[in-house]
Design brief:
The chain is of the alpha+beta class. The chain has helices at about 10-20, 25-40, 110-115, 145-150, 170-175, 205-225, 245-250, 390-415, 455-550, 555-575; strands at about 45-55, 60-70, 120-130, 135-145, 165, 185-190, 230-235, 240, 255-265, 270-280, 285-290, 295-300, 310-320, 330-335, 340, 360-365, 430, 435-440, 445.
Length: about 575
């Protein structure tokens, strides 16, 4: 008799989910990700995710009910399918999970969020099956009483919902607040491991404090998607606002941009990393990351043959002396996939205490889900910093950008701290002898003409005319000097560009020579190895021949070893 292996009981799944590092924010984000992912894959726009969090009237710091609604046209699809084809199945698999346009990768985020947050879950939906040719709609209510499901003796039966029934459109609209289509999820009997704590103080949030916290976090996570018009988020009747896009608003002179390409092995681990960037002369340069030296080296072969994934974009910028000067990001890096910004931001470079890194902001953007693991994005959408070749290459680049921006900011600070000449007020009157005069802004003396004799006044007029002509001539000479300086600078720039080009050519020639030398050395090494193999084979044959000889005696064995040692000693001396 063949035993039935069976499946994991639902109780074990609940224990596992509630032991994972989930939170109210991550659970709500999983539910929102499901909404915007389905909107994106079905090309729907102006989709709304409506979230209501209600607090107990006698306990102002205790949320007791959460309602999440959407207005997706098709609602929960395929609810009448069985097993893994049903979206409520814990192992549900569909094509969207491998599509980079959709957020869901494993198909468990929504179910885990419901298990983590509540003991009692009710789902109301207007369902239109994608496999139904007639596109017939059904209004469905599904109830999950989690403690009751955990008590069931059968592991197979423990996953089935507490109730599943067809309801009337009127009953659906009574529970659903958005349009006449979409879905509403009601979560009650919220879990005791209260997720409404302030992570800094450890105190429970009031409703206003929780709304403020969630508003800031959701705005950071979904601003790009809201800006694109994919969907909007309503939290307790307040729209989530959109943060400014620093990458788009900051001028190009305050940005450094790089493109990374990588190749993953069968375990989704990076095995080669390439980087496109600009040289100081403005040329695009492609380099390969060397994990041994921790540096980027020049390529000696076509890059495209070694990559198997879409690129990763890195932008590093400084908000210092821009219209966003008050924005302080402290050199943290946001990781964004398809417009969804993950939490928390990562620190790749050690924070200095001098303040020069406060205005530095970095952003990594990518599209492929296959890069999630390599970039530290886990199933719960939390960011951790893994240890792999891709992360090391990004960290090396960010050390370079941080050094660049710190140097730029320090130079700007030093320039602003230089002492400036004090300008005299144009109305300041200075007395010299008995004739009063005023000091102009350029420092010239302007006598009071009403107190000067007419002859002296005429002489003074001629003198002023002559001074005017002299000043104009000086201005012309200054303009000529400036033009000459500009020409000299242009010549110098041209000379520098020629020197850079010559240096690049010399470097390329050196690299070619080194490659040839390396090839020669590799060839010599192969020849030496083959020669050593043949010599060792002859020695081994001699030893075997001696041992197999009928005249061989055990006491003669030491003579064989002495021969071997003497042979290799002589060989080493000859090699030296």
């Amino acid at each position: 008799m063949i035993p039935k292996i069976g499946c994991l009981h639902f109780m074990s799944v609940v224990k596992h989910v509630r032991s994972e590092p989930h939170s109210l924010l991550s659970s709500l984000s999983d539910m929102i990700d499901n909404i915007y992912g389905l909107a994106n894959i079905s090309n729907q726009t102006d989709v709304i995710a409506n979230i209501r969090i209600e607090f107990h009237p006698l306990h102002p710091r205790m949320p007791y009910k959460i309602i999440v609604s959407d207005n997706l046209r098709h609602g929960f699809q395929n609810l009448f399918e069985e097993a893994s084809h049903n979206p409520l199945n814990m192992g549900h698999i569909r094509e969207g999970h491998s599509n980079d346009q959709e957020s869901s990768e494993f198909g468990t985020g929504l179910k885990k969020a419901m298990i983590f947050m509540a003991e009692h879950v009710e789902l109301y939906t207007r369902s239109i099956s994608e496999k139904n040719k007639n596109k017939k709609e059904h209004y469905v209510k599904v109830v999950f009483d989690i403690p009751e499901m955990m008590k069931r003796p059968s592991a197979q039966e423990s996953y089935e919902p507490t109730s599943f029934e067809i309801i009337s459109p009127k009953e659906f609209e009574k529970m659903h607040s958005l349009d006449s289509h979409g879905s509403t999820i009601l979560l009650q009997n919220l879990n005791e491991n209260d997720f409404s704590h302030d992570p800094e103080t450890g105190l429970k949030y009031t409703q206003k404090e929780l709304e403020t916290f969630l508003h800031e976090k959701l705005s950071r996570a979904y601003s790009d998607l809201i800006r694109k018009g994919v969907f909007r988020i309503l939290l307790n009747d307040q729209w989530i606002t959109v943060q400014d896009d620093l990458v788009d608003k900051i001028p190009k002179s305050h940005k450094l941009e790089y493109t990374f390409y990588t190749r993953l092995n069968s375990k989704n681990e990076p095995e080669s990393v390439f980087r496109n960037g600009h040289t100081p002369t403005g040329r695009v340069q492609t380099m390969e990351y060397d994990p041994i030296s921790g540096k980027f080296i020049k390529l000696s072969y076509p890059m495209m043959e070694r990559i198997n994934l879409p690129p990763i974009q890195l932008v590093s910028l400084s908000t210092k002396h821009t219209s966003f000067d008050t924005w302080l990001s402290y050199d943290y890096t946001d990781i964004v996939r398809g417009g969804r910004c993950f939490d928390p931001p990562i620190k790749f470079v050690k924070q200095e205490t001098d303040g020069y890194s406060n205005h530095i902001y970095n952003r990594l953007t990518y599209e492929s889900k296959k890069l999630n693991k390599a970039l530290g994005i886990g199933p719960n959408k939390k960011v951790t910093k893994p240890n792999n070749m891709l992360i090391s290459a990004i960290q090396t680049t960010l050390k370079q950008t941080t050094y660049h921006w710190r140097k730029e900011i320090k130079l700007q600070q030093d320039h602003l701290s230089l002492p400036s000449f004090q300008k005299r007020d144009e109305n300041t009157t200075i007395h010299s002898g008995s004739v009063p005069f005023k000091m102009d802004m350029d420092g010239s003396q302007n006598h009071n003409h009403d107190d000067i004799h007419p002859i002296r006044k005429r002489n003074q007029k001629e003198s002023e005319d002559q001074e005017f002509v002299t000043r104009e001539q000086n201005h012309i000479h200054q303009d000529q000097d400036h033009n000459q300086q500009d020409q000299d600078q242009n010549h110098n720039q041209q000379d520098q560009d020629q020197n850079h080009n010559q240096q690049d050519q010399d470097q390329n020639q050196q690299d070619q020579d080194q490659n040839h030398n390396q090839q020669d050395q590799d060839h010599d090494l192969k020849v030496a190895i083959e020669r050593s193999k043949r010599l060792l084979k002859r020695v081994a044959d001699k030893i075997l021949e001696s041992i197999r000889s009928p005249d061989f005696r055990k006491r003669d064995a030491h003579l064989v070893w002495e021969f071997i040692e003497r042979y290799f000693q002589e060989k080493d001396e000859s090699n030296e």
